[in-house]
Each structure stands twice: as C-alpha cells, then as structure tokens.
Design brief:
This protein is an alpha/beta fold. It contains twelve helices and twelve strands. The chain folds into two domains: 140 residues, Rossmann fold (3-Layer(aba) Sandwich), CATH 3.40.50; 136 residues, Nitrogenase molybdenum iron protein domain (Rossmann fold, 3-Layer(aba) Sandwich), CATH 3.40.50.1980. The longest helix is centred in the middle third of the chain and has 22 residues.
Length: 308
C-alpha cells in the first residue's frame, strides 16, 4: 500500500473520497477536511502573513511574485522523514498552494526520495473530474474513481435539469477577492450556469479577472455572492467594511434588494475537488431557495444582513 503526501486541500479530499485516507501520511498546512486530517504531519508553510487584511495579503503576494519567489515552501525535513511513495501537488495557481516547481526543488534537496509526483491542473469542471481520475489511477483505484464521478454527475444533472425550468435566471457576480476586487473564474462560472444563473464576470476555464467598482456598477447584478479565496464566512464579515465603505455599494441592485450572500469560499468554491458538487448545491439554494434545500444554509452560506 502506497504512502501518500498531499500538498493541496482539494487533492487530500480526492484521496479520501477515493478511500485512501489511511494511506495519507502528510498534508499541507491548509488541508483541514475531512475530519482526522489535522493530525497528520504538515509538509508546507506560507512565506507570508495570512492574518492581514485583503489588501495587505495582496501586497505581500505581489512583492513575493515580483521577486520570482514562492508564496509557499515545502518542509523538506518533514517530507524526507515521511518517505512518501506518492506526492500530489498542482500547477494551476502559484498563489493558492505549493507548486510543482516547489516540489521539484524539495526533492532535489532530498535526493534519496524518488516518489511518483501527481500534478493536478484543473481550470474548469471537466479538468477537476480529470484530476480525480488521475489521482484514482495513481492510487490504483480506477473503479472507485469511476463510481465516484458517476455519483457526482447524477447529482449535478438533477440540479441542472430542475434549474432550467426556472423562468428567472439571475445575473450573479461572484467576488473572489475584496481589495482589490476580483471576480471568480475557472469552474465557478460553470457552476453558476448549472445552478440556473448567469455569471456577470469571468469565463469558464479562464483565471479569475480583476474588476473595477465602475464595472460592477455598470453590470449591476441581481445577486452578489462573496467567496474570497481562503476566507471563512466570519472572516468575510470582519472585512465587509471594505465593500460597504465604497460609494458604489449602496447603489447596487443586489444590495438594495438584500441579495448579498456570504459563502465559505475556503471550504467550497475555491477547492477544485469533490466538494464542488456541494458548491453547486449552495448556488442552487441561493438562486432558488423555494426549490432547493440541501441543508447548506448557515454552514456553507448565509445571507448578509447589514448592521443597524
């Protein structure tokens, strides 16, 4: 049985969904799901402070990348001690997690470790399903992978079929960063469409675009769904003043009609793994609350209520 180290939260979830949790021997500093994962040795660490404001984090990342440095580092000694047979990492985003280049460098510093490296690189939903198959193949669990994907497609199709019957197709702006403003891209526009909405920004398969307040005002979407990368709902709430202080905010239709929603983007929308299916369910509950009830309200999302 292969020993696995996952350096990506979504990859950890894939391994566990495929029945390989007992094979996991190490994780990234961000891997926190499913239960029991937190007891595993941590093999990565950030090279920046993640406790700052949105603007402060953005500036730190900008400076690090400007100098061609890595946002994260691999804990080489921990990796060497674990002696994994398989390491799962990614090439999709240098800001989101340890990159393939970081892993290569770490392995060169520990020459007696020659594990198989599985690199994930999804930019759309099909890419996520392909990555799950890639992990399944690496673990020798191809049949489990096929069964898992079939169950996901059944759940997705049921939501998509029902949402198509809705006459109203709300325009939705999904906000992936608060200062500066960034809209969600990659797989999120696809999820919006499958749930019966129209994505105001972002293209399927394309990286998340920076947007301006003027563009947000001109688009004036029916709904605003906040899903900052790495932020919980309580963390979003702490920084809501960044949005509400802007003069454009109270003029937006979504704000005036009470259609602003906080989501746990860290656990759901920003993880290209199994729980994108739950992310779709969250969208469905938000867009059509009388039709869809999956039990995510209060856990994965909630309506934003302005303080009096």
């Amino acid at each position: 049985m292969s020993n696995i180290v996952s350096l990506l939260p979504s990859a950890t979830e894939m391994v566990c969904a495929l029945g390989g949790q007992e094979q996991l021997k190490g994780r990234s500093h961000e891997c926190d799901y499913p239960l029991g994962i937190s007891k595993l040795p941590v093999c990565t660490a950030p090279n920046l402070s993640v406790d700052g404001t949105s603007q402060e984090i953005h500036e730190q990342v900008f400076e690090i990348l400007k100098d061609a440095l890595s946002v994260y580092r691999v804990e080489v000694d921990t990796l060497h001690a674990l002696q994994p047979d398989i390491i799962v990492t990614q090439t999709q985003c240098d800001v989101c997690a340890v990159s393939f280049t970081d892993v290569e460098k770490a392995l060169k510093e520990s020459l007696d470790i020659q594990p198989t490296v599985i690199s994930l690189h999804a930019t759309n939903l099909q890419g996520v399903w392909d990555d799950i198959q890639r992990v399944a193949q690496g673990l020798g669990k191809q049949q489990e992978g096929q069964q898992l994907l079939a169950s996901y497609q059944t759940r997705i199709s049921k939501i998509a079929d029902q949402s198509k019957r809705e006459i109203s197709q709300p325009s939705v702006a999904c906000i992936e960063w608060m200062e500066p403003l960034m809209a969600a891209g990659n797989w999120v526009p696809e999820l919006v469409q499958l749930a019966g909405g129209q994505s105001a920004f972002g293209e399927p398969g394309a990286h998340a675009p920076w947007i301006t307040w003027d563009a947000l005002a001109q688009t004036n979407p029916d709904m605003l769904v906040l899903m900052p990368c790495g932020f919980s709902m309580s963390r979003i709430e702490e920084e809501m003043n960044i949005l509400t202080a802007n003069s454009v905010w109270p003029t937006l239709k979504a704000v005036q009609q009470g259609h602003v929603y906080l989501t746990d983007g860290n656990q759901y929308f920003n993880r290209p793994g199994p729980r994108l299916v739950e992310s779709l369910e969250i969208f469905a509950e938000i867009f059509y609350p009388t039709r869809f009830k999956f039990g995510h309200e209060g856990i994965g999302w909630r309506q934003w209520i302005p303080a009096n």
